[in-house]
């Protein structure tokens, strides 16, 4: 019997409508088709104040933190703004810490409105999540609005890249779950329900 896996998707776009969200929803649909349980966090809906280390965390952050701690894997999607990720993503991450990302497989996705997208954005995010002790997978996905249409129809090459991106995440999540199961068996612990 296959163990249930929870994949959390984070939309780092403040746009409405959002191309990033549209791409993430396609990823979510494919993950669900592969029998993953998904949860979706939309930064725009959180409406977070600018992080202040001396202020109490808003209730939305406590909810997000609890969701992330239950995640077996994470997909973070961001639009590229001036060659990097959005301030809204940085603000969210400033509220969080190691506990939410420790050893969690993280897949990174970037979108852009121009000719080519995302390399710097993905590299910047990779560094941030590594500093938060997340396990950023080698596969990443970047797409420009110019590489698709409003219905998000992908050519065969782009569709294959998206499939490999999803497979990369699912492989790392599977490894994580096997390792956690092994760790619990070594300690004599009975596996806890998520």
CATH superfamily: Flavodoxin domain
Strand and helix order: EHEHHEHHEHEH
Helix content: 40-55%
* CA-CA gap between termini: 16 Å
- Give the integer mean of the pLDDT values: 90
Structure report:
Keywords: Flavoprotein, FMN, Oxidoreductase. Pfam families: FMN_red (PF03358). This is NAD(P)H-dependent FMN reductase. Residues 7-146 form the NADPH-dependent FMN reductase-like domain. The chain is of the alpha/beta class and 194 residues long. The protein has one domain (6-187): Flavodoxin domain (Rossmann fold, 3-Layer(aba) Sandwich), CATH 3.40.50. Helix content is 46%, strand content 19%. A five-stranded parallel sheet has the order 2-1-3-4-5, with helices on both faces. Helix 1 (19-33) links the parallel strand 1 and strand 2 (37-42). The longest helix is centred in the C-terminal third of the chain and has 32 residues, at 156-187. The two termini are 16 Å apart.
Concise account of the structure shown:
Residues 7-146 form the NADPH-dependent FMN reductase-like domain. The protein is an alpha/beta fold and 194 residues long.
Q: Keywords, please?
A:
about 190 residues, alpha/beta, about 45% helix, globular, NAD(P)H-dep_FMN_reductase, Flavoprotein-like_sf, NAD(P)H-dependent FMN reductase, FMN, flavoprotein
């Amino acid at each position: 019997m296959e163990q249930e896996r929870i994949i959390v998707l984070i939309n780092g776009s403040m746009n409405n409508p959002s191309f990033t969200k549209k791409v993430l929803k396609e990823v979510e649909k494919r993950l669900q088709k592969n029998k993953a349980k998904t949860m979706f966090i939309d930064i725009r809906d959180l409406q977070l104040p600018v992080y202040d280390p001396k202020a109490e965390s808003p209730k939305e952050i406590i909810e997000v933190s609890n969701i992330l701690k239950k995640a077996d894997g994470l997909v973070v999607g961001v639009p590229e703004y001036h060659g990097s990720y959005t301030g809204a993503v940085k603000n969210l991450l400033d509220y969080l810490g190691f506990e939410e990302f420790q050893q969690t497989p993280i897949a990174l996705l970037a979108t852009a409105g121009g000719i080519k997208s995302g390399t710097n954005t993905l590299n910047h995010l990779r560094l941030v999540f590594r500093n938060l002790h997340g396990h950023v997978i080698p596969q990443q996905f970047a797409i420009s609005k110019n590489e698709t249409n409003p219905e998000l129809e992908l050519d065969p090459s782009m569709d294959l890249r998206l499939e490999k991106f999803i497979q990369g995440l699912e492989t790392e999540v599977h490894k994580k779950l096997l390792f956690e199961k092994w760790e619990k068996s070594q300690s004599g612990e009975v596996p806890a329900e998520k």
